[in-house]
């Protein structure tokens, strides 16, 4: 059916466009401000800059250690994601396709802690980690990220693996393929979309996390990006361009990721009850 | 994608598999259990154990180093503390954002559903704030509304005196509410749109044949059909208001002026890590968790309705 172009459709377009503008304008404003010098910004905050400069970015990397923070963040988020996804995909596959005693109880225990808010965990986790001297060390935070991401990961991937037809796996099993062979050769290759979605959701969750990252890595040299951004924002309230540049560095990767993979993300948030 | 399935000729050997079925099942049991073990152990050590520990220390007066058992005193002092009452009311004030989020999201999703030119682009644009950290959003708004920020620069152009938004409770709450609405309606729109797309288009055609106008269709078909999604969005946002405002408050107001923008989750953080009262912090965390669990369970009807797809 060909779409008719009526005045009503123009109206709809206009409303949506103006709503989109309220989302895009602040982001564009921050992006442009990040590439201005403070002097240039002060002359005319709303106009386009006379000259674009990278000085805010070089300042942040040289003097405020954002390079190190970016490195730490990539390390912590990357490793935690890898480990949490490995554990949750293997567990999710077992729960989806193997019927073993205790599977129900294990499944329920994952679901029960899926929506646990971080503020109930932060105090005991801080105390327990400081007891084993892991506060102030990257692995301590990694453990927390791995643990907090596993329950939803298992829940999501269990549902994903359930979608693979049983006969395919049965046939391979009869041929003598064991758990890991069916997992690597059948389950994983047939679930690329689901794996991508959960990886993206969990990446965003860890990258954007503030409370654990701030409290479990109190040392300046161990800072991750989000807490580093928060402290720069607190110290340089009146230097808008500098804060804007820090915002770009922190938010940039997540926005690029969304631009590249919006299909998976939109499916991810509408598919499960997920808001991870 | 079934290339990895064994070729048919191999199925002849299947007899062997069947004869060994008993041992296979036993082996499967063991492997299934072993496969869930790493995930389960991590969760047990870093989620179950800490929760029990949190319940335990909520009965102690402790700064994390010395522990003194004080029965239910932490809970009692929370119930009688005027600050906690004030903070709870502040939390309720932040709920004001939710009707706006839902209204905007309904508008957006109904318009997106018309699939006009560029609707997929708009959908991604509305989704943008969802991938941003609360600290990023919070700092954007704090910068924008700071005394020397662009909003005051705009007011100056209109010959209006600059407003110090973060010096009074009400204006500070207003800015946080704006941030909540700005960052919240996109996610809600996507959820509602998914609900709309599940509606059978024939219902709309039938209504059109009967002479229903656009508004009547929205009022009598669209909104009733997505009641489940609307409820889901409302609950998620309520939970969010009680558990996830920390990032916003931390970078925007640090809870101030005084306690006027302190939320429950921020108060837990303050009690435990600024006043070093880990016991009372835990007690408050458990109470908040109790509130939101009760909320979730009473509304779980809607949640399970959503989980079906």
UniProtKB/TrEMBL annotation, chain A:
Q: Entry's InterPro entries? A: MetI-like, MetI-like_sf
Residue ranges constituting the ABC transmembrane type-1 domain according to the UniProt record: 70-261
Pfam families, alphabetized:
BPD_transp_1
Question: Where, by residue number, does the polypeptide cross the bilayer?
Answer: 12-35, 74-96, 108-129, 141-161, 182-207, 242-260
The record's annotation in SUPFAM superfamilies points to: MetI-like
Provide this UniProt record's keywords sorted from A to Z: Cell membrane, Membrane, Transmembrane, Transmembrane helix, Transport
Biological process GO annotation list?
Answer: transmembrane transport
Q: In the UniProt record, does the keyword Acetylation occur?
A: no
Lipid bilayer topology: Multi-pass membrane protein
Any Gene Ontology CC annotation = plasma membrane
Give yes or no: UniProt keyword Protein transport: no
The listed locations are: Cell membrane
**CDD domains for the chain:** TM_PBP2 (cd06261)
**Where's it mainly located?**
membrane
Stated name of the protein: Unannotated protein
The organism is: freshwater metagenome
From TrEMBL, chain B:
* Organism listed in the record: freshwater metagenome
Q: Where is the ABC transmembrane type-1 domain?
A: 83-299
Protein name (Swiss-Prot/TrEMBL): Unannotated protein
Which residue windows are transmembrane per the record? Answer: 31-57, 69-88, 94-113, 125-145, 172-196, 230-259, 279-298
Q: Which GO terms describe its cellular component?
A: plasma membrane
Q: Which residue intervals make up region (Disordered)? A: 1-23
Q: Which UniProt keywords apply?
A: Cell membrane, Membrane, Transmembrane, Transmembrane helix, Transport
> How would you describe this protein's topology in the membrane?
Multi-pass membrane protein
Q: Which GO terms describe its biological process?
A: transmembrane transport
